[in-house]
Automatic annotation (TrEMBL):
Annotated residues for binding of heme: C440
Species assigned in the record: Daucus carota subsp. sativus (Carrot)
Entries under PANTHER family matching the protein: CYTOCHROME P450 (PTHR24296)
Cofactors demanded by this protein: heme
Keyword Electron transport annotated: no
Similarity-based family: Belongs to the cytochrome P450 family.
Full protein name: Uncharacterized protein
GO MF: heme binding; iron ion binding; monooxygenase activity; oxidoreductase activity, acting on paired donors, with incorporation or reduction of molecular oxygen
Pfam family, one: p450
Gene3D superfamilies found in the cross-reference section: Cytochrome P450
Key words of the record: Heme, Iron, Metal-binding, Oxidoreductase
Length: 495
């Protein structure tokens, strides 16, 4: 009897799988036809945007420009996309509680981010934000950040680039270098550990490799028009979901090892962010500590590396801007003198303008989404039904003539200066660091890294693109990543 039952179960498995596949195919081919007949949805579902635009974000920018309200509705995805600053302020400040990250978003990124700060709402989000804010706002922590960043630049980043100076075949992927640099920095600052990914032999930590893969595959989940696809793949543990599961298992093991190593150290005299959480009420919640580690790696590595990559691509195309940065540094810091304090960096107004202008055109996070809890009406008159995903498109907002003028596509740092001093524009028109209640806690640390790296490398080297005419193409990911990296040639600077 038992043998017959076992035979029956085994024989039914392929039949069940076949039925699921048939249902899946019907769902995949019939749903787009019935969900919506608008041209925007047809264009998205058929991927016809690829024939005219290099990147999906450029297609969204095109559509948002054409809309009188700078808001569109992608019915196939039940997604309202906006580039209207009034709508952004309404979501992030005025009615913040009605636009949480939401359960759909949490499910998509749940395997990777768990209950980390970027994937939760409510009390758990407030707790993590408060703990991180108390630590990152301390003046002693800022001074420690600068020490870590300067050490990484002087002892690893600069020697690495020097080793590639004037090599005939010495093309260096600067995007990969910046990812290593940012990974070392965030691990030192937040966890008190040094992965040494930027040493001359360029070792790559298993954590970073697994994290890259998991980040990319999780982002692909969010981009699929039919969520059932990745859910079925996860259920049967096949394809991309199988690779994602393997990568996350590796991340879990390494994150747990990192936490255990930190527990063994005496952090009473050398506190860091992870230590603060370990000394809090969640000290025994190993899973939540793991989620916190992952979230801060995402925030501290990927966004900084993305911003540095796009900034150096822009600077390589604008040599006069690089010269202006050097001239300002010579006036403020002194010729051949090294930057030694945060106060000196704060006096470099043109450098600050360059950083902001670069991220206006190429924000590290190109868009961000929330989910509407209760039926609502946005300031531009758009009706938002409960359960609708609403996305503000930072990339598109930086390319709107109404906000930035007719020259909005030009790289002009001067637009951020008033009488030679840096001037902050409306943060809801420039939500690169988000705005309102969820404004980025790591903003000051990120700016410290960006300005320090730009300043040092421009004063030491001439960095040239190996393919000067090639425009950026972005790979799928939670942050903007150049497909193919940023290959450059390093030349010694002739002073």
């Amino acid at each position: 009897m038992e043998l017959k039952t076992l035979w029956l179960v085994q024989s039914l498995q392929p039949i069940t799988l076949l039925l699921v596949c048939i249902i899946f195919c019907l769902y995949l081919f019939l749903k787009p036809k019935f969900c919506c007949k608008c041209n925007i949805c047809k264009s998205y579902l058929n991927s016809t945007w690829r024939h005219e635009f290099h990147n999906l974000c450029d297609w969204y920018t095109h559509l948002l420009r054409k809309s009188p309200t700078h808001t569109i509705h992608i019915h196939a995805l039940n997604n309202i996309v906006t580039a209207n600053p009034e709508n952004v302020e309404y979501m992030l400040k005025t009615r913040f509680d009605n636009y949480p990250k939401g359960k759909p978003f949490s499910v998509i990124l749940g395997d990777l981010l768990g209950r980390g700060i970027f994937n939760v709402d409510g009390d758990l989000w407030r707790f993590q934000r408060k703990m991180a804010s108390l630590e990152l706002c301390r003046s002693s922590v800022k001074a420690y950040m600068l020490d870590v960043i300067n050490f990484e630049i002087k002892t690893r980043l600069t020697p690495l680039l020097s080793s590639f100076v004037d090599r005939k075949s010495g093309v260096l992927d600067l995007q990969d270098v910046f990812r290593r640099f940012a990974f070392d920095c965030i691990c030192k600052i937040s966890f008190g550990l040094d992965p040494k990914c930027l040493e001359l032999c360029l070792p790559m930590s298993e954590f970073a490799v697994s994290f890259d893969l998991a980040s990319r595959l999780s982002a692909e989940r969010a981009m699929t028009t039919v969520p059932l696809i990745w859910k079925l793949k996860r259920f049967f543990n096949i394809g991309s979901e199988r690779r994602l599961k393997k990568a996350i298992n590796m991340i879990n093991v390494l994150a747990q090892e990192l936490i255990q190593q930190r527990r063994k150290k005496d952090f009473s005299n050398d506190p860091d962010l992870l230590s603060k959480f370990m000394n809090s009420s969640i000290t025994d919640d190993e899973t939540l500590l793991r989620d916190i580690v992952i979230s801060f790696v995402l925030a501290g590595r990927d966004t900084v590396a993305s911003a540095l990559t796009s900034l150096f691509w822009v600077l390589a195309n604008h040599p006069l801007v690089s010269e202006a940065i050097r001239d300002e540094a010579d006036r403020v810091i002194g010729t051949n003198q090294e930057m030694s304090s945060i106060e000196q960096l704060q006096k470099l107004h043109y450098l600050q303008a360059v950083v902001y202008e670069g991220m206006r055109l190429y924000p590290p996070v190109q868009f961000d989404s929330k989910f509407c809890l209760e039926d609502d009406i946005l300031p531009d008159g758009t009706f938002v039904k409960s359960g609708t995903r609403i996305t503000y498109h930072t990339y598109a907002m930086g390319r709107m003539k109404e906000y930035w003028g007719e020259n909005c596509l030009e790289f002009k740092p001067e637009r951020w200066l008033r009488d030679g001093a840096f001037f902050q524009e409306n943060p809801f028109m420039y939500p690169v660091f988000q705005a309102g209640v969820r404004v980025c806690l790591g903003k000051e640390m990120a700016l410290l890294e960006l300005k320090s790296v730009i300043l040092c490398l421009l004063r030491c080297f001439d960095i040239q693109l190996s393919c000067p005419t090639q425009m950026p193409r972005f790979s799928p990911g939670l942050t903007a990543t150049f497909s193919g990296g940023l290959p450059v040639l390093i030349r010694e600077r002739i002073r």
